[in-house]
Structure to design on (130 residues):
């Protein structure tokens, strides 16, 4: 009986260790397109641009000719950094920045909204993993 208990204990420990070691960390995750509440603008957060770990891209598009620009703010959840990208007009061209902005595999919070001067409207919120 003791032999069976030891064998079962070893087997369970091996299975547990295998699952724990094989479990990935919070893998990078693109946000995808996040639209303002009225769909007049959008932001896309690309966590690993062209499958390059640590290289992010933030793209903002103004989709409406309504006199309002579109602004996106992307923050590291840990408070390490914050990046703002603006597309001031619906001219057919989105605005983007790319670089190594955030610590790999950390949560990021994203907001996108329309702005005109100091006025803002149509806020939308999302999150991803850098």
């Amino acid at each position: 009986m003791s032999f069976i208990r030891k064998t079962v204990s070893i087997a369970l420990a091996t299975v547990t260790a295998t699952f724990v070691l094989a479990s990935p960390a919070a893998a990078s995750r693109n946000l995808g397109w996040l639209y303002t509440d009225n769909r007049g603008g959008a932001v896309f957060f690309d966590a690993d641009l062209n499958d390059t770990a640590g290289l992010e891209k933030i793209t903002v598009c103004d989709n409406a000719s309504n006199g309002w620009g579109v602004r996106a703010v992307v923050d590291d959840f840990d408070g390490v950094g914050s990046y703002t990208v603006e597309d001031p007009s619906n001219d057919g061209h989105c605005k983007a920045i790319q670089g190594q902005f955030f610590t790999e595999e950390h949560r990021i919070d994203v907001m996108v909204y329309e702005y005109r001067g100091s006025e803002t409207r149509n806020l939308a919120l999302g999150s991803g993993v850098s």
